[in-house]
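W.,

You were right to be curious about this one. When I first looked at the sequence I had no strong expectations either way, so I just let the prediction run and decided to look at it fresh. Below is the sequence, 255 residues in total, followed by the output.
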Amino acid sequence: MGLQLCNELANYLVSIGADLAFLNVSKGNNKPLSFFKNRLNIPDFENIGLFNIHQFIGKKRKAFHAQHKIEPTPVTDELITFLNKHYRKYELGSVITKEKLEGANIFTIQHKANIIAAMCLTDTMHVKQNVATKLSPKMKYLVRVINAFNWILGISKMPSLNEPVRMMYIKYLAANNHEKQLVKLLINHARNIVYEKSYSFVSIGLHQKDPLNTCFSGLLKLTFSSVGMLLSIKDNRPLIEKVKQGVPFEDYSLV
């Protein structure tokens, strides 16, 4: 079945004249990798590094900063320009348009009427759901402890086995110079939103080389890893190497 799906994907890419195909494989799950190699007339998928999936636990306390105010923001030309200025530094990222922001909850921090940080938050529960079917003994213990004291700690309850994980996604997150204070402020705002919705997490996926990974110290979260795999149907080696040398982007609200 896996081999058939891979062949169908390759045939589809050829039929539409596309070149690149990107996929994720959970770190440590090596079984699917055999499907992505040694196919007739199709180059192998290549490892382009790990992606960290950070799942921040919801919190009751609202985000506050004496100097910076978080405001809900409509889609404007200024916002689109700000986001594209940030994401043009990434590999595999598409141009951000008004259409791609439809349905998102957008929050910004401004200084002297200029955007200095922005976050686009999406709720995909109506179109996709993740279900936890198995947990390690350590994780089971952690879930029990959190759920026993979550009301005291002021954090969200953790999901139960075989039930949908109630989670929101950060589709885009940008701050001038990757300012840690601004990033943390927006993350904590998102954590409060998921708490108020009785969700467990707000999640963002970042490549291991993304500077934003350094902004999350002190934030209560779970982090999982997946392997990014990239294929060039046309065997475009310079393009593959360019992606490897840069910082790839993947919108995990779509994965």
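Here's what jumped out at me. DSSP finds five helices and eight strands in the chain. And, maybe more interesting for your project: The mean pLDDT is 89.

Coffee later to discuss?

I.
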